[in-house]
Specification:
alpha+beta, three-stranded antiparallel β-sheet, two-stranded antiparallel sheet
């Protein structure tokens, strides 16, 4: 497991706030685990936990799938790594 903060990020986009959650001013968080492959693409993202259940899961997974990374190298060869991140959703005040 590699800390998310130690990965080089090539492309990052914020998750889209679900309209229903925004209209209701619902806040929450989603803990997502995934593999960064040798090319820097996230593979097999999965929700580890979320609060409230299922409200932000799809938005979190869709965002992770759009991200791109610079995977770490060992002896000059890019290596796939496992990582996790907690995405927090808060409506604008």
């Amino acid at each position: 497991m590699v800390p998310f903060s130690s990965l080089g990020i090539r492309r990052f986009s914020e998750p889209r706030y679900p309209r229903i959650a925004l209209a209701r001013q619902v806040a929450g968080a989603v803990h997502v685990a995934f593999v960064v492959d040798r090319s820097g693409k996230p593979q097999d993202p999965r929700v580890v936990s979320s609060e409230p259940d299922d409200i932000f899961d799809e938005a979190a997974l869709d965002a992770v799938k759009r991200w791109r990374f610079d995977p770490p190298r060992v002896n000059g060869i890019r290596q796939p790594v496992h990582t996790e991140i907690r995405l927090v959703f808060k409506p604008a005040e």
